[in-house]
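From the pipeline queue, job 12 of 40. The input is one protein chain; the requested action is below.

Action: predict structure.
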Amino acid sequence: MRTPLDSPFSPGSDTVPQVWAGRTAQLSDWRDVLRPRRLAGLPERGRTVLGEAGLGKSSLVRRIAADAADRGDWVTPQLRIPSGADPLKKVAQALLEVARQARLPAARERSIGQLLSRVETVAAAGVSLTLRDQPGPEPYTTLTELLIEIGRAAMKRGDVIALIHIDEMQNIGSEEALSQLLIALGDALTFEEAVEVPGGAVVQRALPIAVYLTGLPEFADMAGARTGATFARRFQTTTLGPIDDDDLTSALQPFIVEGWEIPDGTGGTTRILMEPEARAAIVDLSRGEPFLFQLAGQQAWYAGTGDLINRAQVIAGWEMARSEAAAHVERILARLPRREREFLEEMAALEPKERTLTAIAKSMGLDRGSAAGPTSQRLDSIRGILRRGKPYTFRHRAVEAYLTTQWPEVS
């Protein structure tokens, strides 16, 4: 018997759902590239993961962080930056906790104690230290020094790295705070330590530090405008798109084959199965959106109590979630500048084969296609909502469905 208490679906943000779908490229990048190279002392850029709401940015990095913690790495909590908050304070507080994991306070060097004291001051005052014209190093320099000391401690251990995850980067409104934060993180990532290897040779090794930044697509504009080429050199940016239907189908395969195991309430276990038609309905309703996938699965789970999820339960559950699904897409569209939303609406009004830049621009009342070029470029390369081509196509399938069909209504 299934109940809300044992549902494996988690549509809330910032959670790592038990039913995981896709993002294999990003998970592989962590396991096979970023972590091994950093452990080996090889240079590797930080990672910036951007995308519209609901695409699972935070969940992805939280899963990576959970994997790192399981390996014994030193991991900060997810540092969500509220709008208007001083990011240097939050990062300084988190680094002090990592320093405790690295046992830096136990170090006898007087310089370490003085450094930790300075970081505590940053954790209390943040970027305002700069504005006060205080003597001594600026906050970003202090954070860089602590990151380097943490990296040195990890290097001595030999089998761990320090992972820092900062979320909601687009909320950093202060240019000064953002610049200081990115420079501190970037300087630590590019720092190289001289170490002696067998044979007496001295080589330069990058520190075992990994940094993940997550946020909405506009952060790429913010960082590029305020830090220029430095940000691009030090951070590799990925803009997430919807998940392929094949990946969503694969994620539900355990329900089809052997069933999803849950407690039976009597000390044993039972298994919840799913009809293939129910799986197909969940995948179709989700439109590649991780949030909608979890929402559809959760509501289907709630729609009955038996050990078999059928298509009727998926549809009944979706009826309960329909308004939330619509609101999710409406929030994405509402965030867009007027010109970008108009472009999408006019594109959606055309037949798929007629969606050329010239035709869309004409529908917008523009004289030539090139006048809409910058808008289409942003919707493609920055936001990941459409894909330019001949013809143009929607990459964000939930937005497409909302603008071109009766979705999220179902018959």
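Job complete. The longest helix spans residues 311-335.
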